[in-house]
Amino acid sequence: MTTPVLEVKDLRVHFFLDEGLVRAVDGVSFDVQPGQVVGIVGESGCGKSVTMKAILQIVEPPGRIVGGQILFQKSSGAPVDLARLSPKSAELRAIRGAEIALIPQEPMAAFSPVHSVGEQVIEALRLHERQWRPSGPRLSRTEARSMTVGAGCASAP
Ligand SMILES: Nc1ncnc2c1ncn2[C@@H]1O[C@H](COP(=O)(O)OP(=O)(O)OP(=O)(O)O)[C@@H](O)[C@H]1O
Ligand SMILES: [Mg+2]
Q1: What superfamily does domain 6-155 belong to in CATH?
Q2: Distance of CA 110 to the CA centre of its chain
Q3: In angstroms, what is the span from residue 15 Cα to ligand 1's centroid?
Q4: pTM of the model
Q5: Residue 88 has pLDDT above 60, yes or no
Q6: Which ligand is nearest to the CA of 45?
């Protein structure tokens, strides 16, 4: 039997609001096998996005992971429980973007209006890909524009 690349076990993510506790994710479990594509379906507000953000430890406060495990098989070796890592740890930063990436629900709205799309896409490569050469050439206008088209496609249904 193959080892899953990702095992989410009894994940719980709660938001601690002044108005009360929101149990956005309350006991979610699923596996992803190597090469498998998994779709998560549910009504609006049921916790799909929060589950994915929890995997990368980017749930915004006052939300936080309060229980469960997120076991990830790194390409380099032993499995790691992402739920136990500090969001700012070097280990998690090395995984984000390089081994696990997230395309935001509304990618075009997630871009900064004051930086070119090309530069924003390249930033992820600069931060997460070791082979990226920081001294490489800047993007041409044509390259930047084709990246805009690519990012736009990501938001298509
Ligand atoms: N920043 C936040 N502050 C407070 N509660 C939040 C926050 N983000 C999410 N939630 C809560 O978590 C629940 C799940 O939200 P989530 O965005 O994961 O839903 P979703 O399944 O992705 O919905 P959609 O299909 O509309 O994208 C929401 O119903 C809301 O109660
Ligand atoms: Mg969502």
Answers
A1: P-loop containing nucleotide triphosphate hydrolases (3.40.50.300)
A2: 13
A3: 10
A4: 0.80
A5: yes
A6: 1
